[in-house]
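I am still learning, so would you mind making up any protein sequence you like and the tokens describing how it folds?
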Amino acid sequence: IFKFLGAISVDLGQDRIKPYLPTILTPLYRELNSNYAEQDPTLKNLSQEIIELLKKLVGLEGFSLAFSSVQKQANQKRAMRKKQRALQTVANPDIAARRKLKRHKNKAETRKRKIESLRPTYKAKRHRSHALKDLAMVE
């Protein structure tokens, strides 16, 4: 998709690309600023190359305006999600408590996995799954 965006940008030219610049920059910006673990470095490099191509095509000033608007929009979305999460914690404490328990459980599992990778002879105690007990009819 990034290659397609680059090809369309070159095909449209300097004048016709300007209205579509924020739309094109949004996925490129998201890829550059992502920090998840399984990130593909080739994808990051490709997005950087396309951004450089757009800079040359549109000019630094027009590109900077569009890029800053995309950046501002992403920061607003992030702040909105954070605010909604905080409000949900107050409005639905049971859902928040479940999410917190799940996060703590995952954190403990990660810690155990890390210890096992550092010391292969050490075997951490794993929490047994009680899936069959959960499915059983309890009176």
In short: The first helix runs from residue 2 to 17. Residues 1-89 form one domain.
